[in-house]
Specification:
CATH topology of the largest domain: TIM Barrel
Helix content: 40-55%
Distance between the termini: 28 Å
CATH architecture of the largest domain: Alpha-Beta Barrel
Strand content: 5-15%
Number of strands: 11
CATH class of the largest domain: Alpha Beta
Order of helices and strands: HEHEHEHEEHEHEHEEEHEHHH
CATH superfamily of the largest domain: Glycosidases
Number of domains: 2
Oligomer: single chain
């Protein structure tokens, strides 16, 4: 009888341990894990991160409050490209939207990146920077010629992402060009290639809707905690684009601070809460693809690339978002009120359980043994007095 009771109690304790372990939180997939293709079953649309190839070692001396974890790299370095792609893939990023103009340096770097991306089974797209360093539009003849070059020399390569079967490209700065100028640029490459505008509102998109294939709004400076029209604006832009049967790329960012390059605004990161809110809001606008601003725009502090200041925190947040069901966006006024738990916070419950469960089992079995020995002694006393075995022990547990 004592053996049966002991076995039952031990089984119950083991079941309790298993149940508690089943409730322990599991840490997010590490973005530094071995590279794989974009995971099958990742919820939501494809996600492209804006990627800049303008860096040389002395670039990092200008207007930077943070630096890459990989060091003061050059965008020429194929090892750096490969590391970026591996980190991005592990976080659930589908591809890079690469900044490009037809210069020898840009073209050389793009070709190297194409080779590395193809080897890593990673997608690319192109954003053409139509504005110069001073935010003035480039000559339309040059822009048109560059788009033709891209359409002929690059777009047919299968490494470039396709929507509806056509290579995707984006024309940045379209708001600075007339309708006729945009038409001149796009008419030579459509319909064989998609060209999305970068308009900032519904009116801007509609102005160019007949000569473009949709819109990729590059909105890096929005603060969801202070902008009450943010969600509505993205939804209205999506509806306008989709009403024409065209493509909408919704923006989201981890934060923003361009004060060292002439800006006046800061959007706090809030340890990932801003990224989480903006991701959810972008998803809610029913995008054909998501546009993460950015992989490595360090001057505007929108980067998610692992860095000296943040480590890989923002790739971990992104991996969590990409490998779980799409979250509901927080309200505009309190989106940053609840920061994400740190990695240490997530690990504490598991550690406590792993250390505490053996002690729980030992303590439980010890108490059970004492109880059974006591019951045996009391049962013996009851038999001598003419009572039933266990009767005395039973009554000792009854309320007085």
């Amino acid at each position: 009888m004592r053996r049966a009771v002991t076995g039952t109690a031990l089984s119950a304790l083991l079941l309790l341990a298993i149940a508690l372990l089943g409730q322990a939180p599991v840490s997010a997939t590490s973005p530094t894990a071995a590279p794989t293709a974009t995971p099958a079953g990742v919820p939501g649309p494809p996600l492209f991160a804006y990627y800049y190839q303008w860096f040389v070692p002395n670039s990092w001396n200008r207007a930077k409050t943070d630096l890459p974890e990989l060091g003061l790299y050059s965008s020429e370095d194929p090892w750096v490209m490969r590391k970026h792609i591996q980190q991005a893939k592990a976080a659930g990023i589908t591809g890079f939207i690469v900044s490009w103009k037809d210069t020898p340096t840009n073209t050389r770097r793009l070709r190297t990146l194409m080779t590395v991306a193809a080897e890593e089974r990673f997608s690319l797209s192109m954003i053409y920077q139509g504005l110069d360093f001073y935010r003035n539009p480039l000559p339309v003849a040059r822009v048109a010629a560059d788009f033709v070059t891209f359409a002929k020399q690059f777009a047919p390569n299968p490494v470039f992402a396709r929507l509806g079967g056509k290579p995707l490209s984006i024309f940045s700065g379209t708001w600075a060009y007339s309708h006729a100028d945009v038409a001149r640029v796009t008419s030579a490459v459509r319909p064989g290639m998609l060209v999305l505008s970068t308009e900032k509102n519904v009116e801007g998109y509609r102005r160019l809707a007949d000569v473009t294939d949709g819109d990729a709004y590059y909105w890096s400076s929005v603060n969801p905690a202070t902008n009450p029209t943010y969600t509505t604006k993205l939804k209205e832009m999506s509806e306008a684009v989709h009403a024409d049967g065209k493509y909408w790329i919704a923006p989201f960012a981890p934060g923003f601070d361009a004060r060292l390059v002439g800006g006046t605004k800061e959007v706090p990161r809030n340890d990932g809460a801003t990224l989480r809110t903006q991701y959810a809001t972008a998803l809610k606008s029913s995008p054909d693809a998501l546009g993460l601003i950015s992989w490595n725009e360090f001057s505007e502090n929108t980067h998610v690339e692992p860095s000296k200041k943040y480590g890989d925190r923002y790739l971990k947040v992104l991996a969590e978002l990409r490998h779980t069901s799409p979250p509901e966006p927080a309200t505009a006024v309190d989106s940053s009120a609840q920061p994400l738990p740190t990695e240490a916070d997530r690990q504490v419950p598991t550690v406590v359980l792993l250390l505490g469960l053996p002690a729980l089992l030992i303590t439980g079995l010890t108490l059970l043994g004492r109880r059974l020995r006591h019951r045996h002694r009391m049962a013996g006393a009851g038999s001598v007095a003419g009572g039933e075995p266990g009767h005395v022990a039973l009554h000792r547990n009854a309320p007085s």
